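Tip: read the tokens left to right.
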């Protein structure tokens, strides 16, 4: 298990997207077949040798180097904006399964990591680096394992998440920064991110079976059955000299000399596996690295594959692409990796330009993922909800122009692509949605797509996609505020979570909307519930949203301005949000408030606010999760039936 050859791995779904747009007169004319879908420059090919890989990586990275190195501004600097990570949007409802709810995910059957999971017989939560196991039947804490308590110290809310299969949990910890590379004299070694995964056995008392670390930062992960796919983004480990006196040209030349001296090991991700009392190290092999014909050499995306039914982690079977990646969407049989080129354009030359988005399609039906086709679309995506595969076509919603929706420089559209040999060919499009606005939410449901745009008012567009070569806008609804997450509620209903706003676009607090979209030509809003000055994690992270169809119950965290009190009941002297879960019951013509749920605060040495972050249903009981514990509530009466502390 040392750095020799590795096997090709399977790919996974990952995501994070960014979108915008809207216009008064949409255009649905299909583009010529040689436009947009032509992806000859995006086709993935393997390197013939490490020597060829090093030569081409050096040549590709040199233009991106400026007087401050890589990604630090200047003529050669890159704008590297991170995607939203494992907390990105999803597109399938958290459908009830055998009496319990699951994570709200993009596609049914494709699970996504979150801070809490359940299989109906146990609830597993990981907060602040500590994994807790709760028996929902006895409502007791049955296991606790400190995986990395320093996570709680470094991140008040933590970025840890997990996947669950049988008696195994795969815990994904936030990347820690470690100094590894030697640095030139007079300059400290740069910190480098290192992603970490831990396999835990839950059969009895939780115990660690394996610990896996790899260069880079976690992007996201997906799971189908027992197979977990984990996506990691890494950058070359180059130690540039401390800025010296002289011109920008001289400093740039010195930095490019560092690139010219770099070895292949400076680019290829390294990994370390600890299990069974032994430690093994290795790196991704050159013959497992592919590249587009045009690439920057400034980042790599590696996909790891793990069998959660096994007793060991193994080496993760890494497969790497010499490209950047923002968003992963998976339909199950296929995976799409997207690269927002605008995010990595040189700072001085971007000028608000639209670099477009590259899309790579992989076939996952075999043991080894296989690159099938590539293509591109104008604009950028808001999150993975902007992608959807249906009837052999990929639908993509993007915004072009000014990303902030200023003036009339932004507009949005929906593009339909089809696989033609190695090319994702654009066969249809509808553009001109919301000029001067940007997309805040997208939802594709079968043959219909919905897009929400916002600057001052909130148009909800319905797009008919039954004919892939001639998609068309069928309806539009203009209301104040916006929805940033859309969720199907059955019977032609759509739930929206976002912000209420004035006629001038000033936001006023969280609102939950109920839309009637049974007639795509006439979408209407039936009702709304507004929390003045409130905000909700569900507005940006659908994992925080729960719709439990058997009870027609919507549950989401809502925070409001407030003051934290001390243990004696007095004001603690600093403002902090009042937090809790809001439960709404969905009726035929509107919402009724079922109740609210809060958790005990974690006071410690001083006053702290403890957000309630997740909700799930197991055997008819509503469970809510915070960093301090889990509360069981009867959903019909909203009466507390148990509190399980995890601190």
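Filled-in amino acids:
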């Amino acid at each position: 298990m040392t750095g020799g050859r590795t096997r090709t791995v399977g790919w996974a779904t990952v995501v994070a997207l960014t979108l915008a747009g809207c216009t008064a007169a949409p255009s649905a004319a299909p583009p010529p077949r040689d436009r947009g879908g032509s992806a000859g420059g995006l086709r993935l090919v393997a390197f013939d040798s490490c020597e060829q890989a090093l030569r081409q990586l050096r040549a590709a990275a040199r233009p991106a180097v400026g007087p401050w190195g890589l990604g630090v501004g200047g003529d050669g600097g890159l704008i590297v904006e991170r995607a939203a990570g494992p907390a990105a949007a999803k597109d399938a409802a958290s459908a009830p399964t055998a009496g319990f709810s699951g994570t709200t995910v993009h596609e049914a059957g494709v699970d996504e990591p979150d801070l809490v999971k359940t299989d109906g017989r146990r609830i597993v939560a990981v907060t602040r680096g500590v994994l807790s196991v709760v028996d929902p039947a006895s409502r007791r804490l049955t296991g606790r394992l400190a995986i990395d308590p320093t996570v709680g110290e470094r991140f008040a809310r933590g970025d840890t998440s997990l996947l669950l299969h049988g008696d195994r949990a795969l815990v994904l910890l936030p990347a820690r920064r470690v100094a590894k590379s030697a640095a030139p004299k007079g300059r400290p070694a740069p910190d480098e991110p290192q992603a970490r995964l831990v396999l835990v056995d839950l059969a009895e008392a939780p115990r660690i079976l394996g610990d896996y670390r790899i260069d880079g930062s976690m992007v996201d992960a997906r799971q189908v059955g027992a197979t977990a796919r984990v996506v990691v983004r890494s950058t070359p480990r180059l130690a540039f000299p401390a800025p010296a006196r002289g011109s920008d040209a001289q400093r740039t030349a010195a930095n490019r000399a560092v690139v010219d001296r770099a070895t292949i090991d400076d680019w290829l991700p390294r990994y370390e596996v600890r299990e069974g009392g032994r430690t093994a190290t290795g790196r991704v092999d050159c013959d497992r690295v592919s590249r587009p014909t045009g690439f920057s050499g400034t980042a790599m995306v590696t996909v790891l594959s793990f069998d959660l039914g096994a007793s060991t982690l193994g080496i993760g079977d890494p497969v790497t692409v010499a490209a950047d990646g923002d968003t992963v969407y998976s339909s199950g049989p296929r995976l799409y990796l997207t690269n927002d080129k605008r995010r990595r354009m040189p700072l001085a030359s971007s000028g608000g330009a639209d670099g477009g988005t590259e899309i790579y399609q992989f076939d996952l039906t075999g043991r080894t993922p296989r690159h099938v086709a590539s293509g591109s679309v104008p604009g950028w995506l808001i999150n993975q909800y902007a992608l959807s595969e249906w009837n052999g076509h990929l639908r993509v919603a993007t915004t072009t122009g000014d990303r902030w929706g200023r003036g009339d420089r932004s507009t949005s559209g929906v593009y339909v692509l089809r696989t033609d040999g190695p090319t994702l060919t654009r066969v249809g499009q509808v553009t001109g949605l919301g000029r001067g606005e940007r997309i805040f939410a997208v939802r594709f449901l079968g043959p219909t797509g919905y897009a929400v745009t916002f600057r001052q008012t909130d148009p909800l567009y319905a797009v008919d996609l039954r004919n892939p070569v001639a998609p068309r806008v069928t309806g539009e609804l203009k209301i104040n505020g916006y929805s940033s997450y859309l969720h199907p509620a059955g019977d032609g209903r759509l739930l929206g979570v976002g912000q209420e706003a004035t006629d001038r676009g000033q936001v006023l607090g969280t609102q939950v909307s109920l839309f009637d979209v049974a007639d795509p030509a006439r979408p209407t809003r039936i009702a709304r519930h507004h929390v003045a000055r409130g905000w909700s994690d569900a507005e940006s992270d659908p994992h925080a949203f729960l719709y439990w169809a058997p009870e027609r119950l919507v549950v989401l965290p809502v925070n409001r301005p407030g003051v934290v009190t001390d243990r004696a009941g007095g004001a603690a002297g600093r403002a902090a949000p009042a937090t809790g879960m809001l439960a709404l019951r969905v009726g035929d013509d509107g919402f009724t408030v079922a109740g609210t749920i809060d958790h005990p605060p974690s006071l410690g040495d001083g006053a702290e606010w403890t957000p309630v972050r997740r909700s799930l249903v197991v055997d008819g009981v509503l469970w809510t999760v915070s960093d301090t514990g889990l509360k069981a509530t009867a959903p019909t009466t909203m009466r507390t039936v148990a509190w399980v502390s995890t601190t």
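The helical segments are 50-61, 150-154, 248-261, 347-350. Residues 40-115+160-544 form a domain with the Methylamine Dehydrogenase; Chain H fold (CATH 2.130.10).
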